[in-house]
Amino acid sequence: MKLHLLPAGPIQTNAYLLTEPSRGEAVLIDAPGGIWADVAPILVEEKCRLNELWLTHGHWDHMQGAAEVVRQSGAIVRAHGDDQAMFETPEIMSRFAGGRLALEPVKVDRWVGQGDRLGAVGQEVEVRHVPGHCPGNVLFYFEALGAAFVGDALFNGGVGRTDFPGGSMELLAQSILGQIYTLPDATVVYPGHGSATTVGAEKSSNPYVRG
Which domains does the chain have, with CATH numbers? Predict the structure, then answer.
């Protein structure tokens, strides 16, 4: 399996394209604005089809390009139901950018929740619910690869904002302690913004939530 880090959109939100050329399959985790222009040539080069789009949460910068991705690829969309309103009526987020956002709703085909098991690109993936930054934030844990894609729950040396509607620092800390810091220390954490880190590094040095 190949992992492509693709920062995109107005605030350089991380999208992650996972491809398995031997199977001709691909999965995209998050869809910032304009991401399809980065994804399409990789799919052609590696002879892969984008089967699924997984959205870690419903904030605008992670789903701005989702509708275009679905139109171009026909990918199945998965996300958590607690963010349904943001996916289906994204204009509620426009005020956070002074009304300047160009957002299209995206239809989620299959809702995911705590403990769900998904199969993709030849891997088994566990879904963990990590609210606090956003009610529907989830992470996707690839145990065999030692990798967790966590959205905006946890960053390298930081945590997601909790001052948006539905945010709670107390809940976020509980989510991090119970759902992220319980993963093996060597697990690589791929966040929605910035560089990757590890569970062990954040447990020992994150200034907001210590393990």
Answer: 2-205 (3.60.15.10)
